[in-house]
Amino acid sequence: MTGEEHAMTVGRVEGYPYYSGPASLHSYHATIDRLREGGPFYWNGNDDNGYWVLTDPQAVMEAYKTPDLFLSDSVIATDPNPPFKWIPIMLDGDEHRTWRRLMAPAFTPRRIKEIEDGVRVHAVRIIEALAPRGKADALMDFGNIFPTIVFMELMGLPVEDADRFLAWEHAMLNTPAGEDPDRSISVNAQREVTEYLELVIAAKRADPGEDLISMALSWQIDGAPISHDDLMNYCLLMVIGGLDTVQSTLSWAFYHLATHPDDRARIIEDDSLVPAFVEEILRVYAIIQVARKASRDDDFHGCPVKKGDMVLLPISVAARDPRTYPDPTTVRFDRGTAPQFAFGAGPHRCPGLDLARRELRIAIEEWHRWIPHYALDESFRAIEEVGAQIRVPAVPLRWQV
Ligand code: HEM
Questions:
Q1: Spacing of C-alpha 123 from chain mean position
Q2: Does any ligand 1 atom lie closer than 6 A to the CB of residue 314?
Q3: SS3 for 225?
Q4: CA of 390 to the centre of ligand 1 (A)
Q5: What pTM did the predictor assign?
Q6: Residues 306-336 pLDDT 10s
Q7: According to DSSP H, which parts of 156-218 are helical?
Q8: Half-sphere exposure of 272 toward its Cβ, with a 13 Å CA cutoff?
Q9: CB-count burial class (<10 Å; 0-12, 13-18, 19+) for 207
Q10: Cβ distance 216 to 231 under 8 Å?
Q11: Residue 235: CB within 6 Å of ligand 1?
């Protein structure tokens, strides 16, 4: 069936928000909410380059947990055959399981707990310098750089190169499709990161440390050391997975707290509420939509996928489902053990979730210890950026000193 025929048999979405660049604030989540109520799936596009969007919460969650039908061979809906292989996110089956086993010791809650004090020191150092200024951009001056430094230290990369990493990461993940139609900006940035990592890896082979890259140098698969290319593709994915996600989530956290003074007052008064707040930010402003490639023809929850079709699985479909979360768009501190879908589901569920939660909690705790009272600066623009993730691009704040 051609894309046009698909569109005639099921709903069609025009201009679905995917790598679509700047948009008015909240429009992404509002679109997903509208699509969820409008039908269980859609075909986006009107030619053979289109893709399915699942908008039934149950179907989205099950798709993540059905890896034999929904392959991770490509996770970008518009690019079924990308010229790169990020590891482990683009692996399937046994190969994927092997990598996850190798990675597991680096992400245990215990190991993450061990680095907590160091992570806090980084947060305090940045915020302490901002506090006397009376104004700063919570994202540009803190939310972007803080997870970058944490990540670089974890990987054993020189922290003084953090700005270069920020630029590469932006080019790889947040360049709107209109500005990068052939994805050359993104691919070039990947090449530059790769060249940089080549040098780092060579140095670590000669003089390994305690960091994640050094750990990976000793990994073996079927008795042989992992290949240089695989190591590189693993490091690249870590750059992609570990930086932008925490930054985007922090952009929403600060935006929310600046515009919801009652919620802010509650966490200032009682910082034991911060973990619950972080869970709600992850849920209400879920930032990720990844895709899968169908391995065969199937009728999945009624959606007639054909072998090779790309299928987009927006996490927000499930994370803001009113049937699971009453009053779903409100940040509530009392949801208790409500399921958290922001980190995905199934075999690819985020291995960095403990680290991410810890970074987010520390960022919120320390910011409010130093700068509890603030307001959005008038330079704030009510826009969001829809790239690989959804984020508020800048959160300028001001406060009394
Ligand atoms: C708020 C922060 C974060 C969010 C919301 C998030 C979300 C996700 C999601 C939804 C996936 C699944 C993708 C898929 O199914 O295709 C994923 C995978 C992954 N994440 Fe995260 N993540 C975050 C932070 C991190 C951090 C801090 C790291 C590491 C330093 C990390 C490393 C990874 C890796 C390596 C994968 C691939 C796992 C696999 O394919 O098996 N993430 N993340």
A1: 20
A2: no
A3: strand
A4: 15
A5: 0.94
A6: 999 999 999 999 999 999 999 999 999 999 8
A7: 162-173, 184-206, 212-217
A8: 1
A9: exposed
A10: yes
A11: no
